[in-house]
Specification:
about 110 residues; five-stranded antiparallel sheet
Length: about 110
């Protein structure tokens, strides 16, 4: 798994859609695993406050909040994240959940 830069991500996320969720995961958990978000600022319509773009086994996945309309809520309170992709995201979700569990045990 590798987080993409803004420049790498821009042309590769168009056409992705909701494929799954992460539950019980905080913003801090995601920062610890992936670093700062690929897109740390709100989308133009304010529906997404932050977004990570990750390449995993040749496919592109996004992890993002949805319609909190509040950066503070996203960073301080949110524990349910959306996973977007153009492909099935079950394997990616499992890998992320496993890595987060390993981090929490350490």
């Amino acid at each position: 798994m590798e987080k993409l830069t803004r420049e790498e991500a821009l042309g590769r996320i168009q056409g992705s859609s909701l494929k799954g969720h992460l539950y019980g995961v905080t913003y801090s958990n995601l920062v610890e695993l992936f670093g700062e978000p690929t897109f740390p600022e709100p989308s133009g319509d304010d529906k997404v406050q932050v977004q990570w773009v990750i390449e995993h086994e040749g496919d592109i996945f996004t992890i993002y909040d949805w319609k909190t309309y509040s950066r503070r809520e996203t960073i301080e309170e949110l524990t349910e994240w959306n996973i977007g992709a153009k492909v099935y995201a079950g394997d990616f979700t499992t890998v992320v959940e496993t890595k987060l569990t390993e981090i929490n045990k350490a």
